[in-house]
Amino acid sequence: MQRWMDKKHLNDNYQKLMAQVYNDPDVREFLEQHQADLSEETIDRSSAKLYEYVNARDRLAAGKTVFAPGYQPALIINDHLIDVTYSPTAEQQEKMRSQTVRQRVNAVMMPKMIREANFDNFARDDQRLAALAAAADFTESYESNPKGFHKGLYLYGSFGVGKTYLLGAIANHLAANGFKTTLVHFPSFAVDMKNAIGDNRVAEKLDTVKKAPVLMLDDIGADSMSAWVRDEVLGVILEYRMQSELPTFFSSNFSMNQLETEHLQITQRGDEEPLKAKRLMQRIRFLASEIAMVGKNRRLD
């Protein structure tokens, strides 16, 4: 083997390569710090690890492909030998933190823009300040005492005034501080619940929503509602959350009074059931404070 290496000049190349490794400032500093623990034999036996460290560090600095993307190497002593350990870079740590935060927001059939929604980018005009202030008050109150009962918000107004965006901003703010939120586009969820009947998954899907630590029901009243969805889906969700005193938010184009008289009390079949509508509205009023949002349609900007 030695003769073969000499013939191919591999031995000289290896010696030159390792000379560069041993003269590397980081390697020299590590060896000096641990000279009491390392013999020449130990250093020689660990040459491959020293090379791995220098190679991985330099490739990472140059933006090249590395063995563990997003992780930076470091030299350690392991079982009396030199070894290489990998820890996440600052960029990787931020990526992991962002992923963790995103996982705390369960968005069910919601627009993608709510993933990036935040208070800083919410339009601060006079017509929206009350809603923004109420959102900030809720997050501060909830974060200081998450086990207490906190009324959510019932945001209503015309199309494109930022109701859904504000819900997303609240959810993302809570997520950044360690709290989980579920946002549901209610008309789409109602369709999904009807489809779940054939799969016998109604109870499972309903439990996921009704037991969410913080729940946001978006676009209530956007579509006509069957008696079954009203009573066995929305009614069950509201009853559970009222009894459990769980924070609940709503967005709608209807005011609370309009939602009761123009939507909830009239079924798809045209039947009027004012008592059932009133019962649901009592629960909504218990769970949330009504706030009007007005302004231009920002979806058209």
UniProtKB/TrEMBL annotation:
Please list the GO terms describing molecular function: ATP binding
**All residue ranges annotated as the AAA+ ATPase domain in the record:** 149-290
SUPFAM superfamilies recorded for this chain? P-loop containing nucleoside triphosphate hydrolases
Q: Which GO terms describe its biological process?
A: DNA replication
What Gene3D superfamilies does the record point to?
P-loop containing nucleotide triphosphate hydrolases
NCBIfam families recorded for this chain?
PRK08939.1
Which protein, by its recorded name, is this?
Primosomal protein DnaI
